[in-house]
UniProtKB/TrEMBL annotation:
Entry-linked PANTHER family: PEPTIDYL-PROLYL CIS-TRANS ISOMERASE FKBP9, PEPTIDYLPROLYL ISOMERASE
Class of the enzyme per the UniProt entry, highest EC level: isomerase
Region (Disordered): 511-538
Broad class of where this protein is predominantly found: endoplasmic reticulum
GO molecular-function terms, A-Z: calcium ion binding; peptidyl-prolyl cis-trans isomerase activity
Pfam families: FKBP_C (PF00254)
UniProt EC number: 5.2.1.8
Localization (cell): Endoplasmic reticulum
Protein name per the record: peptidylprolyl isomerase
Length: 538
């Protein structure tokens, strides 16, 4: 009788051989005395055959039925189920009992289809693979017995391809459909949907079933545009970004599978760029339009609007990019100072002008509300001469036409503030500044070009009055003493907000035309006696 001894049975046996199945197996053939007459191992290839179709000796046809892949059986076949009384001349003698040590490697049926087993699926699956999509995935490729023949992990590079248009073996084209990014599945492919009778001529033999353990990392379609997911939009949004605006924003950049490739937060510095001008990848140029200051949004960019097939740095080729951005501020190079008056006293007749000496309190912040500085915390006002260059140009503009007691908000674009460089450790480069100001005191300045004016009539003997020792020459000490006396007695007025000694020395130097440290009567002239282009003289 036929004898079958199951010497090894794998724990997992999802399928067993049935008549009509195609099998691939290794074997050792020997006589009862141990003499070997044949071996598939010696030939370096499995024995491939249909079961139950008369292509095998009857005993082997029966012995293979019910086997699992990776099962090992020891089979004793009597002559009547082998080669009978005739044998095989030169190989098998007549009436020989045959022993076979069989290891089943592969098993499939012509009616098989691609089998898909998903063993991990993300909770969120906004999109699945469709025909003509482009995917990036990792895989381990094995035969049914678990032998590894290929792995993208070993190459440390994803397999990148279109799906459903013939770039893959038909079984993989089918097996990838419906997958989510992050999903893991095992795809089992019969040979007639893989490499068929001939194999691939390299690692994959003919008639081999293939098993791919796949994890999908990326997915897009060439027709995709960018996708925007609003995560936080401020309630107040007075202005949205447009082409030509300059933005400062933070971002985290990841791949679709969540792998971080870049972050402005890690550099502790915003990314600053013009929008719609080609300074950034096309998808980001588009995704940054229409944002508000303070807005957070997710921008998903397909590779043809990102870094394309080649990729860059840590970004692989054909990768979909995900940017989670936070807009810190933006402006346009054509912007001027923006002034919003929050409070104006009913009596507001004296307005600030160039040359006035102002004392005011302020809170300075960025557009996102980050506090930069405050005079309130210092317990003293900030004092300047308006229009004298003691503050940034935007503040000089923002303090114009203000009355004492008025409160206003002044928004200053960077080209009227601290520019591209900013102030190290205090004001970021290209930052829009917001000043909340309260004017506390205003001392009217002098007409433009004057550092000193008379409050009454000018003495016709002015030079003689200044030249106290009547030697025909005025020294700086005499000049300084005379001006100080005129100011203290109310006969004259100096430009407010400047250092007395510096003003007087400037006035004296302008009179000392030959630069010898003395002013003579011939050199001495009043302002209205000077040519129009000369300034800051007595």
């Amino acid at each position: 009788e036929l004898g079958v001894e199951r010497r090894f049975v794998p724990e997992s046996c999802p399928r067993t051989v049935r008549p009509g199945d195609f099998v691939r197996y290794h074997y050792l053939g020997a006589f009862p005395d141990g003499t070997r007459f044949d071996s598939s191992y010696d030939r370096g290839s499995t024995f491939n055959v249909f079961v139950g179709k008369g292509q095998l000796i009857a005993g082997m046809d029966q012995a293979l039925v019910g086997m699992c892949v990776n099962e090992r059986r020891f089979v004793k076949i009597p002559p009547k189920l082998a080669y009978g009384s005739e044998g095989v001349p030169g190989v098998i003698p007549p009436n020989a009992v045959l022993h076979f040590d069989v290891l089943l490697i592969d098993l499939w049926n012509s009616e098989d289809e691609v089998q898909v087993q998903t063993y991990f699926k993300p909770e969120k699956c906004p999109r699945t693979v469709q025909v003509s999509d482009f995917v990036r995935y990792h895989y381990n490729g094995t035969f049914l017995d678990g032998t590894l023949f290929d792995s993208s992990h070993n190459r440390m590079r994803t397999y990148d391809t279109y799906v459903g248009i013939g770039w893959l073996i038909p079984g993989m084209d089918q097996g990838l459909l419906g997958m989510c990014v992050g999903e893991k599945r095992i795809i089992t492919i019969p040979p007639f949907l893989a490499y068929g009778e001939d194999g691939d001529g390299k690692e994959i033999p003919g008639q081999a079933s293939l098993v791919f353990d796949v994890v999908l990392l990326d997915l897009h379609n060439p027709k995709d545009g960018i996708a925007i997911e609003n995560q936080l939009v401020p309630e107040s949004c007075e202005r949205r970004s447009q082409t030509g605006d300059f933005l400062r924003y933070h971002y985290n950049g990841t791949l679709l599978d969540g792998t971080l490739f870049d972050s402005s937060y890690s550099r502790n510095r915003t990314y600053d760029t013009y929008v719609g001008k080609g300074y950034v990848i096309a998808g980001m140029d588009e995704g940054l339009l229409g944002v508000c200051t303070g807005e957070k949004r997710r921008i998903i960019i397909p590779p043809h609007l990102g870094y394309g097939e080649e990729g860059t740095g840590k970004i692989p080729g054909s990768a979909v990019l995900v940017f989670d951005i936070h807009v810190v501020d933006f402006h346009n190079p054509s912007d001027s100072v923006s002034i919003t008056v929050h409070y104006k006293p009913s009596n507001c007749t004296v307005l600030s002008k160039k040359g006035d000496y102002l004392k005011y309190h302020y809170n300075a912040s960025l557009l996102d509300g980050t506090l930069l500085d405050s005079t309130h915390s210092l317990g003293k006002t900030y004092n300047i001469v308006l229009g004298s260059g003691q503050v940034v140009l935007g503040m000089d503009m923002g303090l114009q036409d203000m009355c004492v007691g008025e409160r206003r908000r002044v928004v200053i674009p960077p080209h009227l503030g601290y520019g591209e460089e900013g102030v190290e450790g205090e004001v970021p480069g290209s930052a829009v500044l917001v000043f909340d100001i309260e004017l506390l005191e205003l001392v009217s300045g002098l007409p433009e070009g004057y550092m000193f004016v008379w409050n009454g009539e000018v003495s016709p003997n002015l030079f003689e009055e200044i030249d106290q020792n009547h030697d025909g020459e005025v020294l700086l000490e005499e000049f300084s003493e005379y001006i100080q006396t005129q100011v203290e007695t109310g006969k004259g007025k100096l430009a407010p907000g400047f250092d007395f000694e510096k003003i007087v020395k400037n006035m004296f130097t302008n009179q000392d035309r030959d630069g010898n440290g003395k002013v003579t009567a011939e050199e001495f002239k009043l302002k209205d006696q000077e040519a129009k282009e000369e300034h800051d003289e007595l």
